[in-house]
Amino acid sequence: xxxxLYLLTFAVIGAGATGVELVSxxxxxxxxxxxxxxxxxxxRDEIKIVLIEAANRILPGVDENVVxxxxxxxxxxxxxxxxxxxxxxxxxxxxxxGDRQIPTYTKIWTAGIKANPxxxxxxxxxxxxxxxxxxxxMQVPNYPNVYAVGDNSSFxxxxxxxxxxxxxxxxxxxxxAVVKNILYTIKGKEKRPFKFxxxxxxxxxxxxxxxxxxxxx
Length: 217
Ligand SMILES: Cc1cc2nc3c(=O)[nH]c(=O)nc-3n(C[C@H](O)[C@H](O)[C@H](O)COP(=O)(O)OP(=O)(O)OC[C@H]3O[C@@H](n4cnc5c(N)ncnc54)[C@H](O)[C@@H]3O)c2cc1C
Hints:
The protein has helices at 2-7, 17-34, 64-76, 117-120, 168-186, and strands at residues 9-13, 48-52, 80-82, 89-90, 94-97, 100-103, 106-109, 132-133, 139-140, 143-147, 153-154, 156-157, 162-163, 200-204, 210-214. The protein is of the alpha/beta class and 217 residues long. The strands form 6 sheets. A 4-stranded parallel beta sheet has the order 3-2-1-7.
């Protein structure tokens, strides 16, 4: 019985979009495919999927309406969500959140990324995640011919005062802005500050469904 608990508890650490999408897909794979189509003879209630988040809510930074929809869906899927719970230790057969211990052999880390070691090693100013800080033109300060874009760059959005997240739409827009500014420089024209446009986002929760927010400021 004890071994079942360890083997059949799946813990995902980090309730950003990746963590939420992962637990949802994991749930559907186990309950709608494995257990339905002649998979292992395991009782449904023996399986536990746990999503653990350090912040006080899932999907930090994401629109409240999207969060509410996702929370409801995760509840319907019986996925246990634990918030305000920074994981403090990971052991072979468990993880710890302060004094609390969750027995599990399967721990999946979706709690953030670090910059590539190569860019982190460069002699530029970095943010806490090792991403290269850039100015409004995506240039590395004091190195006007060096630009940084995408996941390895840290651009502070003047609208929010926070660095832009490491997402595809940010990387694409930054790259386009840099290309234009390089061309302006070659032509002797003035560069333009980068302005990020939020195109909206979607977070999937399995069964080919997602909660989405269209373009907004
Ligand atoms: C699981 C997951 C899900 C995601 N889902 C979304 C999503 O739904 N929407 C969204 O907008 N974003 C999503 N993202 C984020 C998105 O993938 C990244 O923000 C985006 O790919 C960043 O682009 P980039 O060009 O900066 O880096 P990357 O896409 O990582 O490209 C960097 C490239 O450089 C190569 N490279 C690394 N080191 C070297 C080296 N030394 N020399 C040469 N090449 C090197 C790498 O192999 C890679 O091909 C997701 C990320 C993950 C991990």
